[in-house]
Give the backbone structure.
Amino acid sequence: MPRTRAASVPCMNAAEEQNAAHPRFAEALRELGLDDLPSQIRRFPDATRTAAEAAAAIGCELSQICKSLIFAADGVPVLVLMDGASRVDLELVRTELGAEKVTRARANLVRETTGYAIGGVPPFGHRTKTRVLADRSLLDHDIVWAAAGTPYAVFPMDPKTLITHAGATLVDVRDRTE
């Protein structure tokens, strides 16, 4: 009888299951005194890079996802926290910052600024200190879900606490033409 090889199935070991967050983000949680948050992080077998993927995996409304988006305002990185159902109005961001030009940051700038890949950028715990704007639409929910440093992990938090820990300024930068 021929021998068959067992299929290689990726799985998490006990340490990975216990710490689903990116190590930099896990360290930020400790520094912020959010020691209970790691136990609330959910890790999914499939990527949740987009707000729609995250909402489907969690089973929540799209608007309950907190997107962490990096833009370049006159070449300087800025983080915008936006609900998952909305788009950022770059003109409103430009006006808010008093910038001449605001563009979507390229992947390499996102990684250099935050230390995370697009699709896994959390709202805080970044490699560098950046200006942060949070759209008021996040306050429409009791709980929002944000990336925990990887495209596979998310965490829940009330939006006021999230905005405070991100050091964000509350603004209205949602595109209203949708």
Summary: The chain has a mean pLDDT of 88.
